[in-house]
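# step 3/5: fold
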Amino acid sequence: MIHLRLVSTILSTILIGLGLPAASGVAAASLPDPDASWNRLDRDGFVLLSDARPKRVARIAAALESMNRILEVLHPQNDETAQPLTVYFFQHDRSFRPYKFLSGDRPAHIDGMFLGHRDGDFIALSGAINPARAARHEFVHHYLNRRGHRLPIWFEEGIAELYSTVRQRKHRAILGEAPPVHLSSLQQGSLIPLEEFFRLGDNPPRYFEGRIPRIFYPQSWALVHYIWLSGRFTREEIADFEQRLHLGQPAAAAFKSALGLRPREANRELRDYVDAGLPGRFRLTVEPVERDIDGVTALSRRETLYHLGNLLAHNDPGHLQSAREHLEAALELSPASLEIENALGLVALRSRRWDKAEGHFRQVLACNPSDPTARLRLGETLLHRARDLGIQSDPGDATLAQAESLLGEGIALRPADFALVALRGKTLLYRSNCDGIVDLEAARAGLPHRTDVTQDLAALLAACGRIGEARRLAHPELPADPRHHGEAGQGFRALQLYVDEDLARLRGIAGLD
């Protein structure tokens, strides 16, 4: 299993937002077998698509619904953001393989994956090994994502692993039981020192190297188990720890500040807790979910191609060629499909084919002028085209003006859509228009996890002469008053120079220099 929330950041911020070329595509996956029967099951909060038998589909749907009920009981919140969820359940690993996240140019060795994207979340599962557990694991990532939680990868994976092993009998659920494979891995091998373990999230590809895959998930599970269920820490301490992580404090510092332990001390305690068999358990009462196959309906060939192509379109860049082939094959079966046009537009946008992307989105808007997805993506397409034309050129400025107008119309239709607000703020940033500060401040409040929005705001503040605010935003740990940096004036001047250079970099990213 792997959590791919970083994919959405890479897609919208790095591959497109910073103008870097997308990765070259691997050999395209062949289209799904025409004889394969795909089904759909709609449930409150998600859509489940599968090539498995209806009984297996209903079993996975029940696992997802049960997990949602357990999470709602333990973590009730009223401020969740609606986020569509589409779940793909492949009955065999061989049918899942062409749609997996790529490790290099090969499908990763995973039995489930989660992709968080701004226009919806996606879960894909293999039916080969314990699919119900994989479904619970990936659903936890969706649950965290839709609530805006941003935690270190090890902590999110540990939470997801902990919940994936929940055992429910009628009205009672037990959290914390140890999977034998995890317990064996931890008790027979050495743990990664926490000082090193906390750094793994900085380099996700390491999941696929050496001993990391074998120990990362078990140790993540054990560490969350120890924090949550060992009884060693109070609820207040745990909440403080999680809040510090959410705000970006390094895990080692959060351990010391909130839990009163240095990583070296925590290493010893975690080892003892593992050797004792991780005895902590939590029991709760929750309503069971009934399995129901009555709502399972067959998908047409066009619908199957569209949904699989849409999964590929939101996956990593190596799948874009295959996504295009799936979607074009679907379009041949239904020439007047707005959802397919939108998906093809996304593929073209991510491939930096601005003309193609614009054509797809304008075709959608000609039929449905209020379509929020096409409006947002067309505004983004024009934004990036303007950068290619040159921000200071007449064609570039005219294209920016079109993007600003289009995004403004979208915001009038959906004033709470902070992704639209952030994009309009970026158009104003590119034009050095200080009015964009209001947009970017609102977008930052609504999308606190979007580092690109924070960068844009810092860049525009700097461009508008508000250097102190820009510096504090780019480096919040830097006190506003230089005198608070101590007596070493030379050291402070060096730090100030570094910050000023960083602001120059931000302005360069924005195309202002």
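# step 4/5: annotate
The chain has a mean pLDDT of 83.
# step 5/5: archive (pending)
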